[in-house]
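Model: You mentioned two targets. I'll fold them one after the other.
Researcher: Yes, keep them separate.
Model: Target one:
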Amino acid sequence: MGENIVYVPLTQDEHAAVKITLDDLPRDKTGFQELKAVLMGEVASLDIWLVIAALYLRQGHIDHFQDLCMTINDQRNKQEIEQFYGSEAHGRVRMANAEASYRIRI
């Protein structure tokens, strides 16, 4: 069985991408922050954010799941999120639904 991989296209080079191996997501705080910085810095699709957040939740890394969801859903980040993800309304709704579903389930 092959690796589960997503590629985040680089904003500065349309022919290059960052490879993220979903089977081996970083669990430590530093590694997680580096992953989040890539997602934010390269304006990764919210579909990728949601896949990664859901994997963290399934693996029991609730703090990482919540951090990713809150980064997109937090109203304090609204202007920045609108700037970079204004065209991904459905992705923003899916991220909000993921966080709300988790909170309702607790």
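Model: Target two:
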Amino acid sequence: MLFQAPCPRHFHGKLPHHTPGIEVALVGAAVIEKHFTLDRNLSGPDHKASLEPDELRAMVQAIRNIEKAFGNGIKRPGIGISPMRWDEVLGQVAQKDNEKDEPI
């Protein structure tokens, strides 16, 4: 978790933009409730403070990007060169072109 601040597990946003939804995703909200509408000019109390389709799409995409950035929490050892052997390799010139991911 990026921040250790208290955060509700459910967020119900009433602002007419998606930034608060993204911010609470950063601090670990499990559910984000956001009203959406096809047109803010429709009559009714919720349309003015609701997201339109493009804004909802942008909010969801931004949250998905945050989830990817945090990863799945599983750390695995790398398969690179052991730090104990760096001095043997650093500064050396390859004798041939190596393929991507080819062990050297």
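Researcher: Noted. Anything on target two?
Model: The radius of gyration is 23 Å.
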